[in-house]
Design a protein that fits this description.
Blueprint (H helix, E strand, L loop, with lengths): L2 H27 L5 H25 L6
Helix pairs in contact: 1-2
Length: 65
């Protein structure tokens, strides 16, 4: 995967992460009783966060001072 492809993938993941955040918030505000669905969305959001961090770590290497 090229760096450009990784940057595009990163943006897609960030958008999906924000969308999941909004969906979770909406369900919680609506008093949704389906806690299993909320838990699944939160789990998916955490997986996305991990993928985002992995790509960011690759694109922004540590600087040795």
């Amino acid at each position: 995967m090229t760096e450009e492809e990784m940057r595009k993938r990163l943006e897609i993941l960030r958008v999906e992460h924000r969308d999941l955040d909004a969906a979770i918030e909406a369900l919680e505000k609506a008093g949704a009783s389906d806690q299993l669905q909320i838990a699944r969305l939160k789990k998916r959001k955490l997986r996305l966060k991990d993928q985002i961090a992995l790509i960011e770590d690759y694109l922004i290497p540590d600087i040795i001072a």
